[in-house]
Specification:
The structure is a single chain. This protein is of the alpha+beta class. It has three domains: about 160 residues, no CATH class; about 150 residues, 2-Layer Sandwich (Beta-Lactamase), CATH 3.30.450.40; about 100 residues, no CATH class. The chain is built from 13 helices and eleven strands. Strands 3-2-1-6-5-4 form a six-stranded antiparallel beta sheet, with helices on both faces. It has a three-stranded antiparallel beta sheet with strand order 9-10-11. β10 and β11 form a beta hairpin.
């Protein structure tokens, strides 16, 4: 029971801070007013000096106020804070106006309650309500005063009370006003302190946001710079890859690759090492600048698997980065490269093996981060593939040249055999006649160019098989360069045509031999009798080759 009563007279708990403040203040005011009303009723009941309860208006006002306070508390408990505040302010204002106009006019001590109404309205409803209730209070007092002057309201003389009722009323009103003002001051102070704390928190939050914004700007700038650098690296890598894939000469490829990498990446030095056939030494094949030429001149090489960064990178097939302050990285600065501060070595991978390494050096620290190392390794793999292709191309060219020389020698022997077989060695056009040329020594087949006479070699697959000798129609005149070039072209076409004709004849002869061989074989296989096979064989062989005699024997003691 007691708990229920205490809960009824307690302020509700609300989530909104401002509503909670107004609800707490309204709860205090209602409790105080209700307590004062009960105290006044009790005092008047005990004293009843002026017949307080005998006056029906006084009893009605007192009862109305008590009921109003209880109803407003009911509204407060159900969260109707604004409505309860408005009703309280209005009820106090109405009770004050009724009491003042009914009992002794502006001389009544209850006129001081107007001040309390204005303060309560301002605290509960805000500044606009304070102005409204101030206007109502002024209008009510002026109206009552005017009514008194016009004798519309006539009051009896003030009775003589056994207690200083006016003093008590004024004292209660002043105490109530003082408490409300103190609450207002405390509330304003707290609000200012809260506003100050919020301002400080906002300043701190703004400062942190400013730091965060600056940090984000730095991160964006760093990301943008890293992205631009990575883009430049990728463009440079693509350019190096295109250049490397277009060159098949190994020496030219290595020289151009190191120069292009140094220029596009802005490096201090770039060198390219290739492993020897025994995979013991890494030999410098190309280097940039005077330092590269000096090291090439003295045959610079490093042991694979030794203490050098290049040797360890090739042996372990892993990229390595060394700074000037690194321990165990080996000395970076050398006699030729005194300004080296950081070095990255990238193994050249090709077809599952390491064929060498690419060393890139800078005169600054911390240049080769993960981004740069990734791009450089990708570029090194492209260079390794290009080198491997150049090696394969060189090997295929060497094999092709060997095959070409061998085939040219075979072709030369075939031409010599044809000449021995009675082929007319050549023809000469003279006096408007074409005449055959007799056999001449091979030493006489030499190209020459003597004024009005020109001799051009007939070549087949790099081998000289003849000569074209031409005599100008005008004595003492020289052959023009355009004419010589045209004759050279025609001579080359003549060599190709002669070789095609020889190959055609060889093909025809081979086909005839194969046909003849087939015919003889088919005749020998027409019977399964051994004597008949032997007779057929000796007869066919003699007839085909036009022999005087032919013997075919079988036996194990021959």
């Amino acid at each position: 029971m007691l708990t229920t009563i205490m809960q009824f007279f307690a302020a509700p708990v609300l989530e909104d801070e401002e509503k909670q403040r107004v609800a707490s203040l309204l709860n205090v005011i209602l409790n105080v007013i209700l307590g004062l009303l009960l105290l006044l009723a009790f005092s008047m009941t005990i004293l009843d000096a002026a017949g307080f309860w005998g006056n029906a208006l006084d009893a009605a006002i007192m009862g109305s106020l008590v009921i109003s306070m209880l109803f407003m508390r009911f509204l407060l408990r159900h969260g109707n804070i604004r409505l309860a505040s408005a009703l309280l302010s209005s009820a106090l204002m109405a009770a004050t106006i009724a009491s003042t106009s009914s009992f002794y006019g502006i001389r009544n001590s209850t006129t001081s309650t107007f001040v309390m109404c204005i303060i309560i309205a301002s605290l509960l409803l805000g500044g606009r309500a304070a102005l409204i209730f101030t206007g109502l209070s002024v209008a009510a007092l002026l109206g009552i005063w005017s009514a008194e002057r016009s004798h519309l309201l006539v009051y009896e003389p003030l009775p003589s009370l056994p207690l200083p009722f006016d003093a008590i009323a004024y004292t209660g009103t002043f105490i109530m006003a003082g408490l409300l003002l103190r609450y207002a001051v405390v509330n304003i102070t707290r609000s200012m302190e809260r506003a100050l704390r919020d301002e400080r928190a906002q300043v701190k939050a703004n400062r942190e946001l400013e730091k965060l914004r600056a940090s984000l700007e730095r991160q964006v700038a760093d990301r943008t710079r890293d992205l631009e650098r990575r883009t430049n690296y990728l463009e440079a890598s693509a350019e190096v890859g295109r250049a490397a894939s277009s060159i098949l000469d190994i020496d030219q490829l290595t020289r151009q690759v190191v120069e292009l990498i140094r220029e596009r990446f802005g490096l201090y030095y770039v060198g390219l090492f290739l492993a020897d056939q025994a995979n013991v030494w890494a030999v410098l094949r190309a280097g940039t600048g005077e330092a590269g030429r000096a090291m090439l001149a003295r045959g610079h090489r490093l042991p694979i698997g030794g203490s050098s960064v290049v040797g360890r990178s090739i042996a372990n097939a892993q990229p390595l980065v060394a700074q000037e302050t690194d321990q165990g990285a080996g000395p970076l600065a050398t006699e030729e490269l005194p300004n080296t501060r950081s070095e990255a070595v990238l193994p050249l991978h090709s077809r599952g093996r390491v064929i060498g390494a690419l060393t890139v050096q800078s005169d600054h620290l911390g240049v080769f981060d993960n981004t740069a190392l990734s791009v450089l390794q990708s570029m090194a793999d492209q260079v390794a593939t290009a080198l491997d292709n150049a090696y394969l191309f060189a090997e295929s060219q060497a094999a092709l040249e060997a095959e070409r020389r061998a085939y040219g020698q075979i072709s030369l022997e075939a031409w010599a055999q044809m000449l021995r077989g009675g082929l007319t060695p050549g023809y000469r056009y003279i006096n408007k006649q074409v005449m055959p040329i007799g056999n001449e020594s091979s030493d006489s087949i030499k190209p020459s160019d003597s004024g009005d006479q020109i001799s051009l070699p007939i070549k087949v697959r790099g081998q000289v098989i003849g000569v074209v000798e031409l005599q100008s129609g005008t004595q003492g005149s020289k052959w023009a360069s355009e004419e010589a070039a045209l004759l050279q072209t025609l001579t080359e076409q003549l060599g190709a045509a002669l070789e095609s004709a020889r190959l055609y004849q060889d093909t025809q002869h081979r086909a005839a031999r194969e046909q003849l061989t087939g015919e003889i074989t088919s005749r020998m296989r027409e019977t399964l009798d051994i004597d008949t096979v032997l007779q057929t064989a000796v007869r066919e062989i003699r007839e085909v080759f036009g022999l005087a005699e032919a013997d075919v024997q079988i036996g194990t003691d021959l």
